[in-house]
Design a protein that fits this description.
Elements: E1 14-16, E2 23-25, E3 27-30, H1 41-53, E4 58-60, H2 71-83, E5 92-97, H3 112-126, E6 131-136, H4 145-157, E7 161-167, H5 171-184, E8 188-192, H6 206-213, E9 216-220, H7 256-271, H8 276-284, E10 290-295, H9 300-307, H10 317-326
Parallel strand pairs: 3-4, 3-10, 4-5, 5-6, 6-7, 7-8, 8-9, 9-10
Antiparallel strand pairs: 1-2
């Protein structure tokens, strides 16, 4: 068992999640990629432990994270048992259900049967009694939203989740889901949408809804699958997401126009004394309603670099204007739309 750092809370910033009593680190670690059965387990362990040493107390998972689906939860469960078993009460562990997980009509979407069965499977994989946050991973147009929200409510009442959240719901769907959960008195505290400089759709109403409703916002993919880093400024390096056969980022998405935008953004970052990744994280956190940014990582140094973004979160009007100009013409939609 590793000895954790005694200074782990000295540097991290913690933000209140909406109007709830829960605080999350400004940077959270997501296990969407690089923690599955195809990835080196020692590197995965090192990343989780380094994150905790840096004050990252929130680890974001889902039933289908891997690959293979489910294996990211297994990996995290092993690290928790072997190294962090005595620190469970210092951790916020979340998981989700909503994407295809097993064959047949009951292994996908938003039915009560699927959501509760999936949560039970996630708890077994991680060998936990409960998760701190359980999400419906995406809206399901074939299932009444009342049924999906009642399943989230039951997860709390059964003691298998402390809080619930939703992900990928649009503004109208978010208001509808929150109304039901509030009537049930379910502790819904958070929404997880995709957000980055290359995908700004949540600025078209969702952020306003979350602010009005007092719900926290934890954004995923603030680095746009690694596009908003220095990795793709010149080529596609070996070992990057775009180079992997099972990666969510395709090489043909990195067009000359996009690369030119990345170079302009990198120049802005350099003038701020930041890396491009640090600029992207700080930019995503500039909204008061955004509680946390979920980062991914393939090596320990990337986690250090991401946390260092918190050293400079302030933006001048000129800097924000320069970023908007660097992204012209708009790059919305360039990011991979893979299931997550």
């Amino acid at each position: 068992m590793k000895t954790v750092s005694a200074t782990r809370y000295d540097r991290m910033t913690y933000r209140r999640c909406g109007h709830s009593g829960l605080k999350l680190p400004a940077v959270s670690l997501g296990l969407w990629h690089n923690f599955g059965s195809v990835d080196p387990p020692d590197e995965a362990r090192a990343m989780v432990l380094r994150a905790f040493d840096l004050g990252i107390t929130h680890f974001d998972l889902a039933n289908n994270y891997g690959p293979e689906p489910g294996t990211a939860e297994e990996t995290f469960g092993r690290v928790l048992r072997q190294d962090l078993a005595g620190h469970r009460d210092e951790l916020i562990i979340s998981t989700k259900a909503g994407w295809r997980m097993w064959p047949g009509p009951y292994g996908d979407n938003g039915s009560r049967k699927y959501l509760l069965a999936s949560l039970d499977q996630s708890l077994r994989r991680m060998q936990l009694e409960y998760v701190d946050i359980f999400y419906h991973h995406r809206p399901d147009p074939e299932t009444p939203v009342e049924e999906s929200m009642l399943a989230l409510d039951q997860a709390v009442r059964l003691g298998k989740a402390l809080y619930v959240g939703i992900s990928a719901y649009d503004p109208q769907g978010t208001r509808e889901a929150l109304k039901i959960l509030r009537e049930l008195r379910t502790p819904v505290i958070i929404h997880q949408p995709r957000y980055s400089m290359l995908d700004r759709r949540i600025e078209d109403g969702l952020l306003d809804v979350l602010e009005d409703e007092g719900i926290g916002c934890i954004v995923f993919s603030p680095l746009a699958q690694g596009l908003l880093t220095n990795r793709y400024l010149r080529d596609i390096p070996a070992g990057s997401r775009a180079s992997k056969e099972h990666g969510a980022l395709r090489p043909d998405e990195i067009t000359p126009e996009l690369r030119a935008q990345l170079v302009r953004l990198n120049d802005i970052a350099a003038r701020r004394g930041q890396s491009l990744a640090q600029l992207a994280i700080a930019w995503a956190l500039r909204h008061e309603v955004v509680t946390s940014a979920v980062i991914g990582a393939s090596r320990v140094s990337q986690i250090d670099d991401s946390v260092a973004a918190l050293d400079n979160l302030a933006f001048s009007r000129n800097e924000l204007r320069a970023i908007d100009e660097a992204l012209t013409p708009a790059a919305t939609g360039t990011e991979a739309s893979a299931q997550r």
